[in-house]
Amino acid sequence: MLDHFVLHAGYNQWMNGNLHRAASGMPAEELAAPRGAFFDSILGTLNHLVVADTIWLKRFAAADEADRWSALRPMRGEPMPASLDARPCPDLEAWWYRRQALDALIVDWIGQLDAADLDRTIAYATMRGDAHRKRLAHLLLHFFNHQTHHRGQATTLFSQAGVDVGPTDLLLRIPTAP
């Protein structure tokens, strides 16, 4: 199963690069224009991805096991976003800088995991303070699924704005078997 998460980490990084390329061709006011989406605009949706990844990575970094996951250490000093609709990145340049850092950290961290890590229980609290304990493997499934869900919303917003993000299928990132 670990190889699935390695695949998803690489896919995540690749797709975020595709979103950046699509966004780079749009004027800033179009990226920030209200579009009736859950997070309002393209930039708002991209910000939500940064916010959610930051929240989860901080939770993972706070886990008892995190001391051996050196890739997560920088997350300990990051501020916790105040809300799911926070806008830590006011423009595309700030978003891309932050996105690249998060994606590199995710790829590095997933590369540090071993099969036993996936069965570890991670304790965390929601933004409301509700306590939970779940297996890391299941949390990673949610983590990567959540990214895909909101990138799908972003690609729809790009499409509605007349911008083609290009192919988005995970299948394109699955290596050919020998």
Describe the fold and architecture.
The protein is mainly α and 178 residues long. The chain has one domain: Up-down Bundle (Four Helix Bundle (Hemerythrin (Met), subunit A)), CATH 1.20.120.450. A two-stranded antiparallel sheet has the order 1-2. The longest helix is centred in the last third of the chain and has 25 residues. The radius of gyration is 16 Å and the shape is globular.
What best-fitting shape do the alpha-carbon axes yield? globular
What is the averaged pLDDT score? 95
Rg is: 16 Å
Our measurement of the CA-to-CA distance between the termini, rounded to an integer number of angstroms, reads: 19 Å
- Name of the CATH homologous superfamily: dinb family like domain
Q: What is the fold-level CATH name, i.e. the topology?
A: Four Helix Bundle (Hemerythrin (Met), subunit A)
- The CATH class, by name, is Mainly Alpha
The tally of domains stands at 1
The structural class is: mainly alpha
Main sheet record? 2 strands, antiparallel
CATH architecture: Up-down Bundle
**Portion in helices:** 55-70%
**What is the string of helix and strand elements?**
HHHHHHEEH
In the predicted model, the low-confidence regions spanning at least 5 consecutive residues are none
